[in-house]
Amino acid sequence: MVAQTGNGHGKLIKQALDAAGGEARSALAASWRRSMSLYGLDPEDEGRPNTLTDQELREARDALEPMTTAAQDSLDRLFLAVGDTGCCVLLTNAEGVTLERRGAAADDEIFRRWGLWPGAVWSEAVEGTNGIGTALAERRPLTIHRDQHFHTRNTALSCTSHPIYGPTGRLAGLLDVSSCRADATQGVLGLIAAAVADAARAIEAQTFRQAFPQARIVLTDDAAGRNTAALLAVDQDDLVVGATRAARLALAITDDRIANQLAASEVLGVGAVEADLQNAERGAVRRALALSGGNVSAAARALGVSRATLHRKLHRLGLSNAP
To answer: Topology of 8-209 in CATH?
Structure first.
């Protein structure tokens, strides 16, 4: 498949912006205007994708560790879900540089030619309106479908993207599924968007857990059935030491509040903290019993408590019938 050629697409963009007058009246028109006026791009530019050198790509990957490592399983699962539809999966950094890719070998030649490849730069400033660059510029998930792209050479693509935030709540990168299929329907694109969102949240959660290996990870009430990336990291003194972006937005948590020793009970409520502590304690006791083959004395030694204390815990936690 070959992207549109000629000046029809460029004229379409210019006519749309002229009709909008001084103000862009839609998010798409606003991105087109940035591409043309702010970045000085030409929609008919047929230049090749801007690509990093191998050394620059290695440095960019290293800079996003450990997220690139944490993302591997999610990238594999997402590709298994969408790969049969002629899509490839891309992980980029916050500058729109593609760091990781999953794709079918049969599609490698065409996707590499279009820049859907590690090292390619898809920032809005370089490529104009596109799924990766515009989602990063606007800090929101979106789909740029075919002739919504700014450059004519990209109008055969459909790109669905979702920003990824790091353990400190700051924009770290982006997950994208791109396709060159002309028959991609709105229904299919909607399913892809849902899959991309789930995978992006999974990457955020895994990266967050790895960033606070000694902390207790708490799923906030906001996350119940809605956003599994709304997580808190709580230390042994029940102070919040970390929060994902979703948790920060839901609970009004800032870096300053964390630095000033924010109690988990202040944002979760005393009851929620007590319930979480009890669940954590129950899990520790059950693991100790399992590892000791149900021997209470051995489990007590492993937990560093007396046999009598462990019996009291078993009764309090509703585990008195445990083996």
So the answer is: Beta-Lactamase (3.30.450)
